[in-house]
Automatic annotation (TrEMBL):
TPR repeats: 99-132, 220-253
Pfam family, one: TPR_8
Entry GO MF terms: phosphorelay sensor kinase activity
Xref: Gene3D superfamilies: Histidine kinase-like ATPase, C-terminal domain (3.30.565.10), Tetratricopeptide repeat domain (1.25.40.10)
All residue ranges annotated as the Signal transduction histidine kinase internal region domain in the record: 380-457
Record's keyword annotation contains Mitochondrion: no
UniProt-recorded name of the protein: Signal transduction histidine kinase internal region domain-containing protein
Species this protein is from: Flavobacterium album
TM region positions: 342-364
Keywords attached to this entry: Membrane, TPR repeat, Transmembrane, Transmembrane helix
């Protein structure tokens, strides 16, 4: 009988292992297709099925999860899984496993720009591999990752040394130790060292090697590098072909850095050809892709583990306190059970109070809904005020003139600022509050575009007084723009050169003030009236203030108007910096 049960258990285990092995092959396929987040998710599922497997099998699963998270730029989860793998390999006293973990940890610290720790873990990993020379494949992976460190630091000669050693030692079919990946990195180093033909040779060899061991991430990188190489040689047709191939390979539902960089290169290509409309479209797509990448990526390293532990402990303490409070409440109710009259009065008071609170709740909810609708209308008005077609067309026409004058670098700079300003205004118009730092950055971009439109006949200065933390101080977005526009348009109307716009944020009596001034001719009766009617109408509504709360005046020196100044108090909030 025991023999029957033993055989049945063996059959079930074999079937389960076969299913898990099939899932692992699917995970590897996702990695090759560039679906790194999906690969990491499915690898976790494989790991769960291997819960009762041998430790050496489980630890390899942790390591693969960590690698998938690194490639999808989710370094927080990568660090957690690599620490689990490191703990297991340390218990097994496996030096090769420990070295592999050190290499991944170095990648995480490199992303954090902690170069000292990254270099330390790289050296530890290579030292362990030198002590175990029979594992050349794993050593090659560590050297390739170390080469990434030198590339990030701009030391391409040392990076090439690591890549050459890795290429001699590997015939691997993984991701980092694949010949195609190594040759792509080597080609980039040769490009950076001014050897384009050598670089092209490496890139084309990498594409051939990729046919034997395909990875979408590597293929996109090679094609982007070839496109950028052709662009630097002014072979625009080949550059466009390679870059379009790279963009077309973007995996669905994946934030991809190669896609973002390829769009930036396409913008430069079209700008060099004088097609400013396409250049703007690709630059805007690159800005959006970059925002998605930065929003998706957070990194807290070891602090994340500690924070998670502290949060769990706090939740446990709160549950204990709630249980204790509930026990005391029951005891008090039992002790007061004979006081029926008081209890009846208490219940009646609760019912009345609940009725009043319910009435107030619905009253204020309705009032808030009306306010939200009103604010939405105001935001739409503000959008029309901020980005009118006249401003957009003037900006694009001026950028076009720079291109015709062969000022491509200046055109790229202004095109980038214009696309960033467009995206900032569209994003911030839907927010109630943004940081003062973001507001200052958006104002600076706006004034740079205005400088271009007005032939650089003015300079500007934006300051925030000492004691104001621009990262933690939050204000409603785009309150200041109408006043800055008026200062440029009306205040400096007759200035052909030497104009100056001063923007200042300062605190007075615990209030935050905005002030903009110019060195123009000042305001006459008509211009003062127009100045107030255009600039203060929407702002007064948003501030829920009367027009008198917004001060507009001339700057008088020796009885003569030397410019105009506008100032008003801005509502603000203080938010703590994220840990």
């Amino acid at each position: 009988m025991s023999c029957v049960f033993c055989c049945a258990g063996s059959i079930l285990y074999a079937q389960d292992f076969k299913e898990t092995d099939s899932l692992q092959r699917a995970v590897d396929s996702f990695s090759r297709m560039g679906l790194n987040r999906k690969a990491a998710f499915e690898q976790n599922y494989v790991d769960a099925r291997l819960m009762n497997a041998k430790p050496e099998i489980r630890v390899n699963s942790y390591y693969k999860v960590a690698q998938a998270y690194v490639r999808s730029r989710e370094y927080d989860d990568a660090f957690y899984n690599i620490m689990m793998a490191l703990e297991s390999w340390q218990k097994m006293e496996n030096p090769i496993g420990i070295a592999k973990c050190y290499s991944v940890m170095a990648q995480v610290y490199l992303y954090k720009k902690d170069y000292k720790k990254a270099a330390s873990y790289h050296r530890k990993a290579l030292s362990l591999f030198r002590d175990n020379p029979h594992k050349k494949g794993e050593a090659a992976t560590a050297k390739v990752i170390y080469a990434d460190f030198f590339i990030d630091r701009g030391n391409y000669t040392e990076a090439l040394k690591q890549l050459t050693d890795a290429l001699d030692e590997t015939r691997g079919n993984g991701f980092y130790n694949a010949p195609a990946y190594i040759k792509d990195k080597a080609g980039f180093c040769h490009t950076s060292l001014g050897r384009p033909r050598v670089a092209e040779k490496y890139y084309l060899e990498a594409l051939e090697d990729l046919k034997k061991n395909p990875y979408v991430d590597t293929e996109m990188s090679i094609q982007r590098h070839l496109g950028e190489l052709c662009l630097s040689l002014k072979d625009y047709g080949q550059a466009q072909s390679w870059l379009e191939k790279c963009i077309s390979l973007r995996p669905a539902d994946e934030d991809n850095e190669e896609y973002m960089l390829a769009n930036k290169s396409m913008a430069k290509l079209y700008l060099a050809q004088g097609n400013y409309e396409q250049a703007y479209n690709y630059e805007l797509e690159a800005v959006i892709a970059d925002r998605e990448l930065r929003d998706a990526v957070t990194l807290t390293s070891t602090d994340a583990v500690a924070t998670k532990y502290d949060a769990e402990q706090l939740m446990l303490q709160n549950k204990l306190l709630e249980t204790e409070a509930e026990t005391k409440k029951i005891a008090a109710e039992q002790a007061d059970s004979r006081k029926n009259a008081f209890l009846f009065f208490f219940i009646f008071a609760i019912i009345v109070l609940a009725t009043v609170l319910l009435f107030l709740y619905f009253y204020f909810r309705q009032k808030r809904a009306i306010t939200v609708n009103r604010n939405n209308e105001l935001k739409q008005k503000l959008l029309l005020t901020q980005m009118n077609p006249h401003f957009i067309f003037n900006s694009v026409d001026t950028i076009q003139s720079l291109i015709y004058e062969d000022k491509n670098d200046e055109a790229v700079d202004y095109l980038s600022k214009f696309s960033e300003l467009t995206l900032q205004i569209l994003e911030n118009s839907s927010l109630m509050y943004i940081s003062l730092k973001e507001e200052i950055n958006m104002t600076a971009n706006y004034l740079v575009i205005q400088q271009l439109l007005y032939n650089h006949n003015f300079d500007f200065e934006i300051t925030a007084d000492d004691g104001i933390d621009t990262e933690t101080t939050y204000i409603p977005p785009m309150l200041t723009q109408p006043f800055i526009e008026n200062a440029v348009k009306h205040g400096l109307a007759e200035k052909k050169e030497g104009g100056m716009i001063y923007v200042r944020f300062y605190k007075k009596q615990r209030k935050l003030y905005f002030e903009v001034s110019d060195n123009g001719k000042g305001l006459t009766g008509e211009t003062r009236k127009g100045h107030r009617s255009m600039a203060t109408k929407i702002t007064s509504e948003r501030l829920n203030a009367v027009p008198g709360d917004i001060e507009v005046a001339n700057i008088i020196e020796n009885g003569v108007a030397r410019g105009a100044v506008s100032r008003f108090a801005i509502p603000y909030k203080i938010k703590n910096k994220p840990a």
